[in-house]
Amino acid sequence: MLTRRLALALAAALTLAGCSQKDEAKTPPQVINFSIMSTEGRQTQMDDWGPFLADMEKSVGVPVKPFFGTNYTSLIEAMRFKQTDVGWFTNHSGLEAVRRAGGEVFARTVKPNGPDGYQAVIVVKKGSGITLDRLLKCDQTLNFGMGDAKSTSGTLAPMTYLFAPEGIDPNACFKTVRSANHEANLFSVAQGLLDAATNNTASMERMEMLGTDLAKKTMASIDVIWTSPTIPEDPMVRRKDLDPALKAKIDAFMFSYGTGEGPEAERQRKVLERIQTKPFKRADNSHLLPVREMEAAGQLIVAKRKGDAAATAAAQAELDKIAAEKKTLPPAGAGN
């Protein structure tokens, strides 16, 4: 009898624990952790993002705290382990957040001026005489800078569109290869610490916007020797398992912020200008199709060069799958 009572008590305790865990899972977070990649200095990022996060906190009714990452892997892992809830990612790192961290694309940025999209670039010091042909000579005499391994413009785009088609491994091509954020790479090239480095047009526009003497001197000291095809604007990613009511509040804030007329809307647009976007637009995981295509195209090039039939077939199958998915999408601009 005692054994039966003990078993019943244990079963009841487990049932209560299970209910408690379910209730806990449904409980909205007491704080929203918003991840930001430090592609520039942390203080610069906080100056730019602070007003936006403060407005989000006021609108959503939950404290919103910045979570700065020194690389995209740390931001992906932070979302994976539920240390962050929402974040601005690049296309490549956003793809990894969807694949590995339970994330979903729900919005995208909009270029502040001109058509949507940006380009990856390779910059050199003005007057150095380094051309693209010189760079691709691969005589291991140049010091090269790349972005984070999960950076779309700093790594994926130059690998897909430049190095992979030429059969070039940067680590075997250059004397040294250093990985740093966009701001650091610009400064290093301008100061002659690196011979060349990857960057992107958005980062260079941000540098020009700073208007400081150092920024002006830096931009006047570099030349662009290579430009990639256009890359889609960046995605905003959040955890799929966030409380639906909180998601609705985030949506209400994100898609109304900076819209409309009047002094407040104008103030909000100026806040958005600091983080280099117009009012956000709705998006979903289909936003990542172009970066998946870039990734698969690069894999196909490498597989064919190595004569790897299995890898070639896998890459081609992924490209075919992406092409089929793209056919199901509404026309560009529909629903925005």
Automatic annotation (TrEMBL):
Pfam families: Phosphonate-bd. Gene3D superfamilies: Periplasmic binding protein-like II (3.40.190.10). SUPFAM superfamilies: Periplasmic binding protein-like II. PROSITE patterns: PROKAR_LIPOPROTEIN. GO terms for biological process: transmembrane transport. One of its GO terms (cellular component) is ATP-binding cassette (ABC) transporter complex. Residues 1-25 form the signal peptide. This is Phosphonate transport system substrate-binding protein. It comes from Phenylobacterium haematophilum.
